[in-house]
Amino acid sequence: MTTIDEQLDVLMSGAAYGDPQTKENMRAELRERLIEAEKEGRPLRVYAGYDPRKPDLHLGHTITMRKLRQFQDFGHEVIFLVGTFTSLIGDPSDKGEARDQLTMDEVEENAQTYAAQAFKILDPEKTTIRRNHEWLSGLTFADVIHMASNFTVQQFLTRENFSKRFDVGAPIYLHEFFYALMQAYDAVALETDVQVGGQDQLFNILVAGRKLQSAMGQKPQVAIIMGESLPGTDGSEKMSKSAGNHIPLMGEPWDMFGKVMSIPDDAMPIYHKLILGWQAEQLAELEKGLSDGSLHPNEAKMRLAREITMIFHGEDGAEAAQQRWDEVFRSKGDGIPDDIPESQLTEEKKVLDILRDLNMVSSGKEFKQLVQNGGIRVNSEKIDDAQMTLTPGDLPAVVQVGKRKFVRLV
Amino acid sequence: MTTIDEQLDVLMSGAAYGDPQTKENMRAELRERLIEAEKEGRPLRVYAGYDPRKPDLHLGHTITMRKLRQFQDFGHEVIFLVGTFTSLIGDPSDKGEARDQLTMDEVEENAQTYAAQAFKILDPEKTTIRRNHEWLSGLTFADVIHMASNFTVQQFLTRENFSKRFDVGAPIYLHEFFYALMQAYDAVALETDVQVGGQDQLFNILVAGRKLQSAMGQKPQVAIIMGESLPGTDGSEKMSKSAGNHIPLMGEPWDMFGKVMSIPDDAMPIYHKLILGWQAEQLAELEKGLSDGSLHPNEAKMRLAREITMIFHGEDGAEAAQQRWDEVFRSKGDGIPDDIPESQLTEEKKVLDILRDLNMVSSGKEFKQLVQNGGIRVNSEKIDDAQMTLTPGDLPAVVQVGKRKFVRLV
Predict the structure, then answer these.
(1) Which one of A89, A146, A149 has the shortest CB-CB distance to B145?
(2) Where do the Tyrosine--tRNA ligase SYY-like C-terminal domain residues begin and end (chains A, B) (predicted)?
(3) Of A146, A166, A175, which is closest to B149 when you measure between CB atoms?
(4) What is the pLDDT of residues A373-410, one digit of tens each?
C-alpha cells in the first residue's frame, strides 16, 4: 500500500504557486488532510471545473485531468465539474450575442461530450459529474451580497488578470468579479478537500475559494495549482483554441498524430512531461539522447505522437495514424498515400476553385500564399501559377495542399 | 396655472452636480420630461429612498423631502421609497451583529414610523410608500450578473466615497458596490422620471441609475441632487446621528426647540434656507438685519426654533417649547422650570449614581467632565466634587445637568 508521503510526492508534483512558502503550506495541509481522511476511513473529495461553452477540449486541458487521475489512482473521489451556470446565463458583455446563451439541452449535450473526452484520462467508475447551475442558479441577490462581503475590491485587483488591465486603464466589468465568487461557491457547495486548476485559477482557488469556505464554516480546500501549461503546436504560446495552436481531443487520430509531429523539437520534453507524465529521470535520458545524437528527434517525436494518439484513440487509431504518416513522408514513390478522397472533374476549372469547393483552402488569399510558398502540388509538382486550371483531359490527377491534404481528381 | 418654466425654476433650485454643464443638462431633460408628461396628461413619477435601519429621521433628511413636496405641489406623483431590502439582509460586514438584520415585522414597523415622520412634510394623499425588498429579494445570481455587466470596476472607483479609500489603501468591500446596483434597480423597478437625493447619492442616481435604466430600455431618470447639506448643531459638520450633532424629528418639542437654539449664529441662514425654504431675498434681509444690528441674533434664532418646531409639533408644541425656554433662561428666579420630573431618594447616594440610574448621564467619565465644566448643579449651585453625595436629609433638591435636564429629588 502507498504511504501518505509517497502519495504526497506524486500529488504535489507539478504544483506551483508563485512562491515556495505557499507550496510548503499546501503540502503540509494536504498531508494533514490525507491523515485525517485515512483516520475517518474516507477518500478525499477532489475536483476541477471545466467551462462547457466551447465543448471541444484540447491537450492542454488534460494536465489537470491527469492530476485528478493521480488522486483517483490513490483511491480518492473525483468530481468532474461542468461549469453549466455560465453557459446558461451567457456572457453578458456580449450584448448582441444571443447565441452565447445556451439552452439547458445544449448545455447537457456539451456536458456529455465533455465527459466522454475526459474519460480518456479519468476512470469513469471513480468519477462523479456535477453541474454547477444546480446550486448557483438558486442563489438570490441577498446570498450574493453575503458572499461578496467576504472580499474587498482590492483583493480582486491583485489578481494578475485584473491588475494588468487596471494598470493600463482597460475596462474590468463588474460581473467579471463574480466568476471568482461562483467558483468559490462551487467549492463550498461541493464541500471539497482539494481543488485542481491551472495558473489562471490561482486566485479563484487559493484566495476566493478558501476564503469563502472559511467564512462559511468549512475547512478551506487544498489548492493544487499546476505550475506549467502546455505550449501549442507553435512550441511557444500556451495551447488555446483562440491562438489556433491547439490539438483537439476529439479530432481524427491522423490529425492528432500529425499535429504532435508538427511541434518544434524543443517542445518535446514538456509534452513528454505534461501529457505522458514522464518523470525527471526519463526526461533527462530523453534530453541526453537528443543532445548526444543517439536519439533522432524525428524518431522521438514519432514515438511521442504515437503514445499521445494511443491515449485518445487506442492502439488501432495510433497504428493507423502512424502508417499513414509513413506512407506520406517515407514512401520512396510519389509520396501520395493510397486511401485519399476522390472528386470528379467534369469541365475546365481553376485549381483554386477546385480546392475551394472541396473546403481544402478557405480563400483565394490563402491559396495564393500557398502557391508562393510551394505548398500546392499537382501530381507531386509544385505549381507557381495561381491561375492554373485543370481540364478533364488532365485526369487522373492528384492535388496536394501542404503536407497532408490530398484529393484525387477523376 | 404654473408654467413649465416656473416649475423648472423651483424644482431645479438647490440642485448641484459638481459642474454647471450637468446642471444645464438635467434642467433641459427635466424641461423635456415636463412637456412630455403634460402632453400625455400624466404626472411625473418622482422618488427618493430612505434607509430604515435607523428609524429616527433628523432635520437633515427633510431637505430631500422638501424637494419632493415641491414636486407634489405641482401635482406630480411622489414615491417615498423605504429601503427595506438592506434591513432584511443586514450589513454583512458586521459579522457578529445578528441584530443588524431585522425581521419583516421590525422593518414594517420602521417603515410606518418613517412615513409618519415624512408626512410632516409630504402630503400623505399624494404619496405612495414603496418598499424595495418587493423587487430586490426576487433577483437571482444571474440577474445580478446581467446588471453588473453594465458597469466597470473603474466607474465605481471614480465615486468619491470609494476613490478616497482606494487612494489610501482602505478596504472597499465588494458588496458595497452592490448598494449602487440596488438603488439603480429601484429606479428601473419604479420606472421613475425623477430621483431626488443628496450629494452622497450623486453616483448612484446620476451614473448607476441612469445607466441601468438605459440598458434596460427605459428613458434615464432626471437626477435632482441637492447641493447643500444641513450642518448639525455644531454648525460645521454635516448633520448625522453618528456625529451626535443631529436634531431628531420625533423627539419632544422642547428638545427640538432647544437644539435649534444651540446652533451657532452663523448657521442660521442655512437653516432658514434649507428647512424653512427661504428664498434669496428673504435670506439677504436676514443677513442684513443681523449684520447691522437691527435684528438680535437670539431673537432671530428663537423665531427659527419656533417655526421649525411648529412644522413637526404644530402650533401648540412650538408654543409650549418656547414657554419652557423662557422659564428656564429668562426667569428672574432660580431658573428651574416647574414641570420637571421627580424621583425618590431613600438613602445616601452619589450624585453620579443618581444621574446614571435616571439615564441623565451615560458614564462616570461624562459626569466627571460635566463637573469640571460646571455643568452639574444642585439647587442651582455648580458642584465641583465628582464624589459628592446626597442624603434624604438634603431633600427636596433639584439636580440639573447642562442647561436643559432637570430632576427633582423627593
Answers:
(1) A89
(2) 338-406
(3) A175
(4) 888 988 778 888 888 999 887 777 788 888 778 888 87
